[in-house]
Design brief:
The strands form two sheets. Strands 1-2 form a two-stranded parallel ribbon. The chain has a two-stranded antiparallel ribbon with strand order 3-4. The protein is of the alpha+beta class.
């Protein structure tokens, strides 16, 4: 039962998330041989102020 967590910046709309869910599910099923019903996906929307790169918040890059 694969579990996939996608962390990305806030702001993606519902339709984008649905598209990504479909594509990721297809890829996981192709790679692992599991049925789509076995794949779970969760999105973690992170504010750019809460994500750091190179020692600073991404919101400042």
């Amino acid at each position: 039962m694969p579990w996939v967590t996608i962390q990305w910046y806030k702001g993606r709309d519902y339709e984008t998330k649905k598209k990504v869910m479909k594509l990721v599910t297809e890829a996981v099923c192709e790679g692992s041989g599991c049925p789509p019903e076995a794949v779970s996906i969760v999105f973690k929307d992170v504010d750019k102020r809460d994500w750091g790169r190179a020692g600073v918040p991404v919101s400042e890059l």
